[in-house]
Design a protein that fits this description.
With 96 residues, the chain is mostly helical. It has one domain. The protein contains two helices and three strands. Strands 1-2-3 form a three-stranded antiparallel sheet, with helices on one face. A hairpin with a 5-residue loop joins strand 2 and strand 3.
């Protein structure tokens, strides 16, 4: 059985932002460039689909992780509201 480890999304987000300084990246003639025009990688011989993934990953994963962080916060807020409503309901059940 596989045990899933909950990742630290804020640490993952910080790692992406630190590791990909100068993003977004672009691709032209077997090279990936950062926003400053510096060559990040020579990607000659790498399939186009993988190059596209590499250049799009910063924006895509940054957005996905930010959405996951917000979703987790919303879930926690909804759990707290549910617990509060359940406690209120239990309180008023005593009056019936």
């Amino acid at each position: 059985m596989t045990m899933e480890t909950k990742r630290d999304l804020r640490a993952d987000l910080a790692l992406i932002k630190e590791a990909t300084y100068g993003s977004p990246w672009s691709y032209h003639r077997d090279r990936i460039y950062n926003i400053n025009g510096d060559t990040v990688a020579d990607v000659s011989g790498i399939p186009k689909v993988e190059i596209t993934f590499i250049t799009e990953a910063y924006d895509g994963w940054t957005h996905a992780i930010e959405r996951a962080i917000n979703a987790e916060a919303e879930v926690e807020s909804l759990r707290m509201q549910r617990d509060s409503l359940e406690a209120t309901l239990q309180h008023y059940r005593g009056y019936v």
